[in-house]
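Help needed: design a sequence for this.
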C-alpha cells in the first residue's frame, strides 16, 4: 500500500509537518498544502515561510516564496468535496 505524504504549513504557529494525503480533508482551516518547503536562500524569510505576524488575528503573513509552493490542486479538490 502506497502512502503518499503531504507537506503542510500551519498559519497559526508557522510549523511545517507531514501528513497522509487522504487525511488533509480532516484538518481545520489555516493549513496550507505545499509542493515542497521554501528555499532557505529567500531574502525575506530565510526559509521560515512568513514575513511577519498579523497582530489583529494572530496569524503569520506568508512570504512570497511560500505562496509559490502552494499545492493548488489539493485545495481545489478539498473545496469540491465540501
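Sure. Designed sequence:
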Amino acid at each position: 500500500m502506497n502512502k503518499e505524504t503531504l507537506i503542510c504549513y500551519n498559519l497559526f504557529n508557522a510549523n511545517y509537518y507531514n501528513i497522509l494525503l487522504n487525511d488533509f480533508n480532516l484538518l481545520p482551516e489555516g493549513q496550507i498544502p505545499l509542493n515542497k518547503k521554501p528555499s532557505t536562500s529567500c531574502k525575506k524569510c530565510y526559509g521560515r515561510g512568513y514575513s511577519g505576524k498579523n497582530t489583529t488575528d494572530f496569524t503569520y503573513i506568508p512570504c512570497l516564496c511560500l505562496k509559490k509552493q502552494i499545492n493548488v490542486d489539493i485545495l481545489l479538490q478539498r473545496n469540491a468535496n465540501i
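The chain has a mean pLDDT of 89.
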